[in-house]
Amino acid sequence: MHYSAATVPLAVTAGMLYARFAAASVRPGPRRLLALTPVLALLVALPFSIPLYSARSLAAFFLVWLGEFKLLLLAFGRGPLDPSLRPLPFAFTAALPVKLRQPHKNSSDASAAAAATAEKTIALPLLSSGIKVAAMASVFGLLSRYNQSMHPYAAFALFGVVIYCLLDSLLPCLAMAGRAALGMEMEPQFNKPYLSSSLQDFWGRRWNLMVSAVLRPAVYDPVRARHGAAAGVLASFLVSGLMHEVVVYYLTFREPTGHVTAFFALHGACVCAERWCARRWGCKEAAPPRAVAAPLVVAFVAGTAFWLFFPAIFGGGMDDRYLAETVALASSFLHAGGRLLRLVGL
């Protein structure tokens, strides 16, 4: 498939507009699923056309994971998508990791709240994203200089900082763009995960909330209704692990090892154990203060990620490839910026 910068966005937009038309024309059920099949196949194929590692992995996350799940839920009349949405908001919500905020019942209260927070909604994401971009630039500078002599776990920690900064700067900016261009209020995607008081708090209420918002109606609720909450939690983490494995394959084009799935299966089991202990011994009353719990949660997530998650993404020389791509992109941007400045006479 031939690639240009506009190929994937245009194809995705066309596919999502067709999905809206099909969903509006066919009632939920197997027939709607059949009508959406061409778009489901398109979303799987499109990331393969992207040559850049970073862009390909983001496209796989947006389209192959979240986009596919949203359309599958739409096929059966569930999830965040609704054919009654206007075309552009539908395509924006379907293709990107954003979720429309439910409107207030009192429209005057909603207008007042929107007016009071408009400036904050724009300024804070821009400031936060600027800080995170600067942090990523600093981390890439360290990695490009010392990656060969650095301990693998130190490199993994720095790459982990890059992943968090990238997601927590890009996703809020996408939500802000949707608000500015389409007038849509978006729900937040991250909520200070470094302040998590438990693993359940980390995964369910703070880290990458769009994944939780998709897994809940697609996996957790149906499994919980039949087999109980613990089975729903385990199934959700297992599906998350398998989909992370798929995204890692799009990123590296290497045969899956199962380590990423094992990481999420382990965390699912730990969340279930955490919930059981809280019920068994009433740990909510005796829970450690956040100043103690948050570092323990972050340390556990980081330690298990160093063991199972990061080697699948950055091991085997992949880290050097990412760094080389980043250096090449930075050089291209600097060169283009220099040419632009010369054109305007600066």
Automatic annotation (TrEMBL):
Lineage, broadest ranks: Eukaryota, Viridiplantae, Streptophyta, Embryophyta, Tracheophyta
Membrane topology of this protein: Multi-pass membrane protein
Parts of the chain that traverse the membrane: 34-53, 122-143, 155-182, 231-252, 290-310
Native species: Urochloa decumbens
Annotated localization: Membrane
Domain Wax synthase: 187-265
Annotated protein name in UniProt: Wax synthase domain-containing protein
UniProt family annotation: Belongs to the wax synthase family.
A GO CC term attached to the entry: membrane
MF terms (GO), sorted A to Z: acyltransferase activity
Keywords: Acyltransferase, Membrane, Transferase, Transmembrane, Transmembrane helix
